[in-house]
Amino acid sequence: MSVLQPALELSGVEYSYRQNAALRGVTLQVSPGEVVAVTGASGCGKSTLLHCAAGILSPDAGTVRVAGQDLAALPEDQRARLRRTKVGIVLQFGQLVPDLPLIDNVALPLLLDGHERGEAHESALDWLKQVGVADEADAVPAELSGGQTQRAAVARALITGPSVVLADEPTGSLDSKAGQELLEVLLRASRYRGSALVMVTHDNLIAASADREIRLRDGVIQHEVAL
Ligand SMILES: Nc1ncnc2c1ncn2[C@@H]1O[C@H](COP(=O)(O)OP(=O)(O)OP(=O)(O)O)[C@@H](O)[C@H]1O
């Protein structure tokens, strides 16, 4: 019998910054369309977990699989392509390119992947519509509010149709109304598209919107709660 392949699979992942063990054997599977909140006290390893899952950091031990592919087993060019096309990342402050209008920021992952400019822009505009900032397509990030730039960051993370969306405190820089709206955009997009969504958060309301909460303590999973 075939079972659904996890969108993201961490197995025995360990990571240390010099002598400081940030992750001490984390095993976690996230299914397509599933929403997981990663919680825990400051310094427990939440961001490190997300960065290992994204392939930004390479674990000292253990494996990370995205859409069934072991990141460490791939040659560098294939790993970079997998990360570009199958992983979408949203950070606390969006991390858009300051000099580029929103439409170019959102189109960037497709352009880097060799898509034709007109097609990439058409898709970017479509995504800007879906997240509610199409009227701001020609504005640069400095001309916009935090909520508007975060929406564009979500569009940029989703434009490639990733298997996994990783969000590190995505609403952390927003007031509660803008934060709630952005959360809804992320949840809708992930559920509609079937991407797994893993969100690091300190916010209990955001955690409550997930299907499952993973609580970390000192670099290990302290407990998991199905919500
Ligand atoms: N670049 C770094 N160099 C050295 N130590 C680091 C670095 N980044 C994180 N750490 C340490 O690794 C541990 C885990 O940090 P991490 O940022 O993953 O935790 P976190 O749960 O995301 O914290 P917060 O909620 O405050 O963002 C902490 O002890 C932290 O001090």
When the domains are counted, the total is: 1
Report how far the terminal alpha carbons are from each other: 27 Å
Largest sheet: 6 strands, mixed
Number of strands: 10
List keywords for this structure.
227 residues, alpha/beta, 6-stranded mixed sheet, single chain, Rossmann fold, binds adenosine-5'-triphosphate, 7 helices
Explain what the structure shows.
With about 230 residues, the protein is an alpha/beta fold. It has a single domain (about 35-55, about 85-225), classed as 3-Layer(aba) Sandwich (Rossmann fold), CATH 3.40.50.300. The chain has seven helices and ten strands. It has helices at about 45-55, 75-85, 100-110, 115-130, 145-160, 175-195, 205-210, and strands at about 10-15, 20-30, 35-40, 60-65, 70, 85-90, 165-170, 195-200, 210-215, 220-225. The strands form two sheets. It has a six-stranded mixed beta sheet, with helices on both faces. A hairpin with a 2-residue loop joins strand 9 and strand 10 (about 220-225). The longest helix has 18 residues, at about 175-195. The two termini are about 25 Å apart.
Task: State the gist of this model.
This protein has 227 residues and is an alpha/beta fold. Helix content is 35%, strand content 27%.
Write the SSE topology.
Blueprint: E1 8-17, E2 20-30, E3 35-39, H1 46-53, E4 61-66, E5 69-70, H2 76-86, E6 87-90, H3 102-112, H4 117-130, H5 146-158, E7 164-168, H6 176-193, E8 196-200, H7 204-208, E9 212-217, E10 220-226
Parallel strand pairs: 3-8, 3-9, 6-7, 7-8
Antiparallel strand pairs: 1-2, 1-4, 4-5, 9-10
Helix pairs in contact: 3-4, 3-5, 4-5, 5-6
The chain binds adenosine-5'-triphosphate.
